[in-house]
Structure formats: structure tokens, C-alpha cells
Specification:
This protein is mostly helical. It is built from seven helices and three strands. A hairpin with a 3-residue loop joins strand 1 and strand 2.
Length: 148
């Protein structure tokens, strides 16, 4: 099974975010239609559905491309991905006008203000989450597809 290694790496990388995005969409739909929370689903879902799985796949292809002596462990490699995705996501959210910056913090949907002091611990949680997802879930998919 040595053929198409990068295609297998891409496919192993997109599994986890694709499943997570499906559950996130369900939560947004339930919040909007059952609990009548005015969340513009179509504006919120564009970035995760369109970009995140592809970036995961490309990031896993990049990991597969590096020689064994030149790459970090898979968890550490995945923990670097938020450094790319968070700025892209924030730029996308600002462009789609559901994220804004104020003197008190980040304003989400013109209704929820998140103080800047909470963003640092949130970033740490995201990096730890990515580390665990990549180490265990993407690592499992890589082993199944004989990439690791």
C-alpha cells in the first residue's frame, strides 16, 4: 500500500474535522430553529466547512512529506495548525461582519463581548485540543492508512 501516499495522508487528515463540522452544524441548526437564537448559520459555517478540513488534509500531507528525522511528533505538528487557522478564521469573521474588535474585547454577532483577557487561556485550550486531536485521532487515521 505504498501508492498514493499523499492522497492517503490528505484523506486521513480530513476525517476528524469533517465529522466535527457536521456536529457543529447540527448544534447551530438546533440553536437557531429550536431555541430561536438569531445566529446567521450561513455566515458562520462558510469558514469551517470550506477551509478547515482541507487545511487539515494539507497539513497532514505536509507531515507525510517531511522525512522522519526532520519533523516534530504528530501532536506537536498539529498544535502548530491553530497559528494558521485562528488568524484566517478571525479575518474571515471580520470580513463577514460577525466579529469586531472593541476597546473592551472581541464582539461576536454584535451581541456577545469576550474580554481580551479570556482570549489567552482560550488560545491555550485550542492548542492543547489540537495537540490531542492530532496525536490520537489523526494519528490513528494515519496508522490505519499506513502513513505513520
Amino acid at each position: 500500500m505504498n501508492t498514493h501516499r499523499y492522497l492517503r495522508a490528505y484523506m486521513a487528515g480530513i476525517v476528524v474535522p469533517t465529522v466535527v463540522v457536521a456536529f457543529v452544524i447540527m448544534v447551530f441548526i438546533i440553536a437557531r430553529h429550536v431555541f430561536h437564537i438569531p445566529i446567521p448559520i450561513e455566515r458562520v459555517v462558510i469558514f469551517p466547512v470550506g477551509l478547515v478540513p482541507s487545511v487539515f488534509g494539507l497539513w497532514n500531507m505536509f507531515y507525510a512529506r517531511l522525512s522522519p528525522g526532520r519533523h516534530l511528533p504528530l501532536g506537536m505538528h498539529g498544535a502548530l495548525l491553530p497559528l494558521i487557522l485562528i488568524p484566517l478564521g478571525m479575518a474571515s469573521a471580520v470580513a463577514l461582519e460577525f466579529l469586531a474588535f472593541s476597546s473592551r474585547g472581541v464582539v461576536w454577532f454584535s451581541a456577545i463581548t469576550i474580554p481580551y483577557a479570556l482570549l489567552i487561556p482560550w488560545f491555550g485550550v485550542v492548542v492543547i485540543g489540537y495537540y490531542l486531536v492530532w496525536k490520537y485521532l489523526v494519528g490513528f487515521c494515519n496508522k490505519v492508512l499506513n502513513i505513520a
